[in-house]
Design goal:
single chain; alpha+beta; 5-stranded antiparallel sheet; about 25% strand
Length: about 325
């Protein structure tokens, strides 16, 4: 059973290898983090499991920061499993810590720039389009009036997504502008994407491709009982060997946002054309692991530690 993660959890870290900070969700156990830690420690790393909220900027420290468990020193590497939800100020502070670590020469997976690009769906979609990657037609605006005007001009069924969100939470489908929710329900920003399946479709599936260090690690089909295909929402994961086009698109999407590892969601439109739907810079893989022969945590740990010990931090 997973135990709640305390502010700092040194456990049985051994006195050898790189010193790693593993950032997790505030106040909760994490199936993924525990497996990552075990895999890193098996390779000789000393892992401190802590949270971004427990860190501090501190001008009295030579490095300018205080990371729990490091006695005023910097870790050799940082793996970000989660950036907890919070106020705008809290999120800015936590991302600031990640920016500062990277600027201090620490290898961070994924770093703040990649997280910022992925967590904001509008930025990710823009970057996909700018790079020439196919993605469903999308418009993002402020105010219900502007959203209504767009849907009046293009009255196809659409999907409305929260700008910040994951696991299918808050996603809804609508058929007309009159079905737009009030502004406060969507944070006063309307992310509207064409619903690209056939109106009478009864098979609801898309693909999650997990990429790491420039290669495809594993993939699955997500088959939903409804049009929402997230495993967290009850979809069935099915093992899948991605075709060349799927691999190419997934790797290109990760490269566009600068992700060291990512979960890339792909979908086919009514003509069968593959499109990049979303990308997640802190992807869960419990469902994927259940149908994959690859030990995902073990491979992630190996790739991350190789980057920490061998690769310089990009400028």
């Amino acid at each position: 059973m997973n135990k709640p993660v305390t502010t700092t959890d040194l456990g049985d870290a051994t006195p050898r290898g790189p010193r790693i900070a593993l950032f997790v969700e505030d106040g909760a156990g994490d199936w993924h983090a525990r497996r990552l830690r075990k895999a890193m420690e098996a390779r000789g790393a000393r892992v401190v499991t802590t949270t971004l909220s427990a860190c501090a900027f501190d001008t009295s420290s030579p490095c300018g920061m205080d990371i729990p468990g490091f006695d005023g020193l910097l870790p050799d590497g940082v793996f970000v499993r989660s950036v907890s939800t919070g106020t705008l100020e809290q999120i800015t502070f936590r991302l600031g810590i990640l920016h500062a670590l990277r600027e201090s020469g620490v290898r961070v997976w994924n770093d703040a720039r990649s997280i910022e690009r992925c967590v904001d769906k509008s930025t990710a979609t823009f970057l996909f389009q700018k790079a020439g990657l196919p993605t469903p037609p999308t418009r993002v605006v402020e105010t219900r009036t502007r959203a209504h005007a767009h849907l009046d001009a293009d009255p196809r069924p659409f999907v409305l997504k929260p700008l910040f969100g994951s696991q299918g939470n808050g996603v809804r489908r609508a058929h007309s502008a009159d079905e737009l929710p009030p502004p406060e329900d969507v944070g006063h920003v309307y992310y509207m994407q064409h619903y690209i399946r056939a109106p009478d479709a009864t098979l609801f599936e898309d693909w999650r491709v997990f990429v790491c260090a420039g290669r495809v690690l594993s993939a699955m089909v997500r088959r939903g009982k409804t049009w929402i295909t997230n495993v967290h929402q009850g979809a069935e994961p099915v093992a899948h060997d991605p075709c060349d086009d799927m691999s190419r698109l997934a790797l290109a999407a990760a490269a566009v946002v600068g992700a060291d590892y990512a979960g890339v969601d792909l979908i086919r439109d009514q003509s069968g054309r593959l499109m990049v739907l979303e990308i997640n810079s802190n992807p869960a893989w419990k469902g994927l692991q259940s149908v994959s022969a690859t030990d995902i945590a073990d491979t992630l740990a190996a790739d991350f530690l190789a980057a920490v010990t061998q690769a310089p931090v990009p400028s």
